[in-house]
Write a structure and sequence with these properties.
Layout lengths: L7 E6 L5 E2 L14 E5 L1 H7 L38 E3 L1 H7 L3 E6 L9 H14 L4 E5 L3 H12 L3 E7 L4 H9 L3 E5 L3 H15 L2 E2 L8 H15 L7 E5 L4 H15 L9 E7 L4 H8 L25 H10 L3 E5 L1 H15 L5 H15 L8 E6 L23 H5 L1
Parallel strand pairs: 5-13, 6-7, 6-9, 7-8, 10-11, 10-13, 11-12
Antiparallel strand pairs: 1-2, 1-3, 4-5
Helix pairs in contact: 3-4, 3-7, 4-5, 7-8, 11-12
The protein binds pyridoxal-5'-phosphate (PLP).
Length: 409
C-alpha cells in the first residue's frame, strides 16, 4: 500500500485561534467552537505541484492525500469515490442571457451526496485515532454517509433524524448498518440527544463541525473545482447552506491553494443559499451580526438545509463577507419550480437543496446581485432520486388501440 507524506501541524480554534495538538481525539475547542486543521503549508508546497493530483490512481478526492489529515493509507475508508462532474448549462445560460452557468453535481458520490466527502474523512480519522462507535444528528444525507462509511470500517454507528426526514434517507441509513432513531423534533434536538448521550454511550459525537475532519472532506469540493477549472476559481459559487461545512471548507481550500501557489489571489464570491422558511444565516448577514440566533418554526421542502442553528455560523458569515458575496433566501415555491425547470430544460434532476441554488441564482440575476457576465457555479449536493418525486405517467390500456394522434397533440 502506497504511503504519502502528510503535513498536519496542529488544530486551531476557529474563534480564538488557540492551538491544539494533532493526532489526538478532539471535539469542539474549549470556547465551544469548531477546530480547524492546520498544515505546514511551506513544506506542502515543496512536496507537490499542480500536476501531482492528476498522477494519482486513488479515486476522487483521495488524490489530494497530502492536503488531507489521514496519516496512514491503511486507515483510508473508501467506497469508490469519484471526481464529481462540472456540467455546463448552455441552454439555460442562453435563455437567461448569462455568460456561463455550471452545476457541480455531487449526487454522483457514494451514498448519493456530498456528505460522502465529510464522512469518509471523519470515519477514516476515527479509525486512525482508535474510535469504534460514532453517533450523529442528521437531516438524512449525512446519516446515510456515516452509516455506509462506518459499516465499511467495521464501526458501530447511531444516527438520529427528525421523524419527518425523507423515508428514503431513513431506510438507507438503517440498511447501511446504523442504529436509526426517529426523533419528534428538529436536527438541533437530535444533536442534543447525541451530546447528552456521550457519557452513557461512549460514542464519538460526529455532529457537523463538532469534530474537526468533516470540514477537511468538504474542503475537497473546492480543491476539485479549482483543479477542474485549470487551477482557477469561478466568479461566484452558490451553496445550499445548512450547517455550512461545505462553504467554510471551500473557503479554507482556496486559502490553502493560494498558500501553496496553485491558484492566485482571486476568490469566488461565496453565496449562502437558504430557504425562506429557515434562513438564520441570511438574517444574520442582513443584520450585520457575527452570530445567527436559533430560527423558530423552521420549515422547507429542502430538508438538508433545515438547520435552525449552526455552530459554525460565524465562519459561514465571515467567508461570505470576506469574499464579497451575500446570503439569500428563496421560497419553497421557487425551489420546486427551479427543480422542474432544470430537469426539463437540461435533463439534470437536482435535489431540492441544489434547486434552491438555481432559484437563488435567478433571483440574484433579477435583483442585480449577480451579473450576467459572471461565471456562476451551483452546488447540487445530492441526487434528486433520493427525494419524493411527484406522481407522473399517463395510463395506456393494452386492450384498446393506442391513440397515437392524441399522443402527438
Ligand atoms: C442535499 C444537501 N444540501 C445541502 C446541505 C447543507 O450542507 P452544509 O451542512 O454543508 O451546509 C445538506 C445537509 O444535510 C444536504 O443534505
Amino acid at each position: 500500500m502506497q504511503q504519502y507524506p502528510t503535513f498536519v501541524s496542529h488544530l486551531e480554534c476557529g474563534l480564538t485561534g488557540r492551538r491544539y495538538p494533532a493526532d489526538t481525539i478532539h471535539g469542539l475547542s474549549e470556547a465551544g467552537r469548531p477546530l480547524l486543521v492546520r498544515y505546514d503549508l511551506p513544506a506542502l508546497a515543496k512536496a507537490i505541484d499542480r500536476g501531482t493530483p492528476a498522477t494519482r490512481g486513488e479515486g476522487g478526492f483521495w488524490r489530494y492525500r497530502e492536503m488531507l489529515p489521514v496519516r496512514r493509507s491503511e486507515n483510508v475508508v473508501s467506497l469508490g469515490e469519484v471526481m464529481t462532474p462540472l456540467i455546463d448549462l448552455p441552454r439555460t445560460a442562453a435563455r437567461l442571457g448569462a455568460a456561463r452557468l455550471t452545476v457541480k453535481d455531487e449526487g454522483r458520490l457514494p451514498t448519493g451526496s456530498f456528505k460522502a466527502r465529510g464522512l469518509a474523512l471523519a470515519v477514516s480519522m476515527a479509525k486512525e485515532l482508535g474510535i469504534a462507535r460514532m453517533a450523529m444528528p442528521t437531516n438524512g444525507n449525512a446519516g446515510a454517509a456515516l452509516a455506509a462509511y462506518g459499516s465499511r470500517a467495521g464501526m458501530e454507528t447511531f444516527v438520529f433524524c427528525p421523524d419527518d426526514t425523507p423515508p428514503v434517507n431513513v431506510r438507507e441509513i438503517a440498511l447501511q448498518g446504523a442504529r436509526t432513531f426517529l426523533v419528534n423534533g428538529l436536527i438541533n434536538d437530535c444533536g442534543r440527544i447525541v451530546g447528552e448521550g456521550t457519557a452513557a454511550m461512549g460514542w464519538f459525537d460526529t455532529s457537523t463541525l463538532k469534530e474537526p475532519y468533516r470540514i477537511e472532506g468538504k474542503k475537497t469540493m473546492g480543491l476539485e473545482l479549482a483543479e477542474q477549472l485549470g487551477w482557477a476559481v469561478p466568479d461566484v459559487i452558490l451553496y445550499p447552506t445548512g450547517g455550512g461545512t461545505g462553504l467554510i471548507g471551500m473557503w479554507k481550500a482556496f486559502a490553502e491553494l493560494e498558500a501553496i501557489g496553485f491558484i492566485g489571489p482571486k476568490r469566488p464570491r461565496m453565496v449562502a443559499v437558504q430557504a425562506a422558511g429557515c434562513a438564520p444565516i441570511v438574517k444574520a448577514f442582513e443584520d450585520g451580526v457575527e452570530h445567527a440566533p436559533l430560527w423558530q418554526d423552521a420549515h422547507t421542502v429542502a430538508a438538508g438545509i433545515r438547520v435552525p442553528v449552526a455552530v459554525g455560523d460565524f465562519l459561514i458569515l465571515r467567508a461570505v463577507r470576506e469574499s464579497g458575496g451575500f446570503a439569500i433566501a428563496v421560497e419553497d415555491d421557487a425551489i420546486v419550480a427551479a427543480l422542474g425547470e432544470m430537469a426539463t430544460e437540461e435533463g439534470l434532476m437536482l435535489c431540492p437543496e441544489g434547486a434552491a441554488t438555481f432559484a437563488a441564482y435567478r433571483q440574484a440575476l433579477a435583483d442585480g446581485r449577480i451579473d450576467r457576465g459572471e461565471h456562476a457555479v451551483l452546488f447540487n449536493c445530492a441526487t434528486g432520486l433520493k427525494y419524493p418525486l411527484p406522481p407522473a405517467g399517463e395510463t395506456l390500456d393494452i386492450s384498446r388501440p393506442v391513440d397515437y394522434a392524441a399522443m402527438a397533440r
